[in-house]
């Protein structure tokens, strides 16, 4: 169990489970606070546990091209390609990446980050391109899309919902704020596992602890993971930072799991205000496995981008949003989680997708969708 003082959080974190989420209004917030930096560290290879539907190097380029639609200010890439691709293919991919980002590409390392000392040096290198912190506001105000994945593409029709989230994060009083931009149906379900979430505009805000590297984070949270949270030693290597912190009540990662946790936190230790959008912003290229109704919802993506459709009727949208089983399920996030996505959220989601009629086409949790899921509660919690 982690010593709270050792990780620099202090005693205020010991009772966060009962602390209500209090958020200021977006009224009066700067309308120009939409910029974000991209920090990516990943290894691109065809050697994966599951068979690739498309060449992984092409998937990576597809994903990076989708990021050119984002309001990026700086791009920091630690992107390593498997030597098995061959020099010609790797050189061609690197040329295309440089062309995609142009002058925004401040760091382009050909090695991903693994050892703790490498991460610490990378943080110093990244910080050289950031503004001077004369007012002591950089840790809070600077936001970074922090990812160790090469396969989560931005798919939303525009950046309006994303920019709203960035603006809300910058005025959030919490020390750590993150926007979990992918795994959309799973995060909506997870948002109520620990305490009651609140809705603000196009977002649900939850109090959780997640170090997963598929989030937009305030710079202070990234510094916290790299500089403050104990690693085993400076030569300690980890393929992902996901397991640096683990609240066992949120996700009980086993020692033999994919990302065994280095620091296990008390179940009532909730570090972040996490923003979950009510419209799908990003999607994992191969989606998220089989959903509650025996189908992959949302669907896997295709190459090229024009082969995908992102216009949905309400029935499809509702199925996408409620893809995670109502009670129980195979994932660590869903274990012991009886929270149900609220009907109000579904109606708000319909409106965000441009549907004027926000009435539900199907019951919230009908038996025909969850026939294989043991549950008793079918009505949405108010």
Keywords, separated by commas or semicolons:
382 residues; alpha/beta; nine-stranded mixed beta sheet; 9 helices; globular; disordered C terminus
- What is the SS-derived class? alpha/beta
Our count of helices gives 9
Rounded Rg? 20 Å
Helical percentage: 10-25%
- Beta-strand content: 15-25%
- The coarse overall form would be globular
Average pLDDT metric: 83
Q: Low-confidence parts lasting 5 or more residues at pLDDT below 50?
A: 10-18, 254-258, 291-295, 368-382
* Termini Cα gap: 35 Å
Q: How many E strands? A: 13
Description:
- This protein has helices at 56-67, 87-101, 116-127, 138-141, 160-171, 184-190, 219-228, 314-321, 343-352; strands at 36-44, 72-81, 105-109, 143-147, 152-154, 176-180, 198-200, 203-208, 214-218, 245-247, 263-265, 272-277, 282-284.
- By secondary structure, it is an alpha/beta fold.
- Helix 1 (56-67) packs parallel to helix 2 (87-101).
- The two termini are 35 Å apart.
- The strands form three sheets. Strands 3-2-1-4-9-6-12-8-7 form a nine-stranded mixed beta sheet, with helices on both faces. It has a two-stranded antiparallel sheet with strand order 5-13. The protein has a two-stranded parallel ribbon with strand order 10-11.
Strands, helices and their partners?
Layout (H helix, E strand, L loop, with lengths): L35 E9 L11 H12 L4 E10 L5 H15 L3 E5 L6 H12 L10 H4 L1 E5 L4 E3 L5 H12 L4 E5 L3 H7 L7 E3 L2 E6 L5 E5 H10 L16 E3 L15 E3 L6 E6 L4 E3 L29 H8 L21 H10 L30
Parallel strand pairs: 1-2, 1-4, 2-3, 6-12, 10-11
Antiparallel strand pairs: 4-9, 5-13, 6-9, 7-8, 8-12
Helix pairs in contact: 1-2
């Amino acid at each position: 169990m982690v010593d709270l003082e050792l990780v620099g959080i202090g005693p205020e974190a010991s009772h966060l489970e009962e602390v209500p989420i209090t958020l200021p209004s977006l009224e009066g917030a700067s309308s120009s606070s939409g910029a974000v930096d991209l920090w990516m560290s990943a290894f691109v290879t065809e050697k994966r546990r599951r068979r690739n539907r498309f060449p992984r190097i092409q998937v990576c380029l597809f994903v990076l091209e989708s990021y050119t639609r984002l309001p990026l200010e700086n791009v920091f890439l630690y992107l390593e390609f498997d030597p098995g691709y061959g020099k010609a293919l790797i050189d061609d991919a690197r040329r295309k990446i440089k062309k995609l980002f142009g002058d925004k590409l401040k760091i382009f390392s050909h090695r991903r980050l693994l050892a703790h000392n490498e991460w610490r040096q990378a943080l110093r290198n990244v910080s050289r391109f950031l503004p001077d912190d004369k007012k002591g506001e950089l840790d809070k105000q600077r936001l970074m899309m922090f990812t160790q994945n090469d396969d989560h593409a931005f798919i939303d029709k525009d950046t309006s919902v994303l920019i709203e989230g960035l603006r809300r994060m910058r005025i959030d009083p919490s020390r750590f704020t993150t926007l979990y931009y992918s795994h959309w149906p799973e995060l909506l379900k997870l948002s109520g596992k620990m305490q009651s979430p609140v809705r603000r505009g196009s977002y649900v805000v939850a109090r959780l602890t997640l170090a997963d590297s598929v989030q937009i984070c305030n710079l202070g949270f990234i510094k916290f993971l790299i500089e403050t949270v104990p690693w085993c030693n400076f030569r300690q290597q980890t393929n992902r930072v996901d397991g640096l912190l683990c609240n066992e009540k949120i996700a009980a990662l086993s020692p033999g799991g994919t990302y065994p946790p280095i620091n296990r936190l008390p179940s009532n230790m909730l570090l972040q205000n996490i923003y979950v959008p009510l419209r799908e912003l990003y999607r994992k290229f191969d989606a998220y496995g089989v959903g509650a109704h025996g189908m992959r919802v949302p669907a896997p993506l295709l190459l090229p981008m024009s082969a995908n459709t992102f216009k949905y009727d309400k029935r499809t949208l509702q199925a996408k949003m409620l893809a995670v089983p109502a009670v129980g399920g195979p994932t660590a996030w869903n274990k012991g989680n009886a929270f149900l996505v609220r009907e109000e959220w579904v109606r708000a989601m319909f409106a965000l997708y441009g549907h004027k009629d926000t009435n539900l086409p199907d019951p919230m949790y009908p038996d025909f969708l969850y026939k294989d899921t043991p549950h008793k509660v079918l009505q949405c919690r108010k």
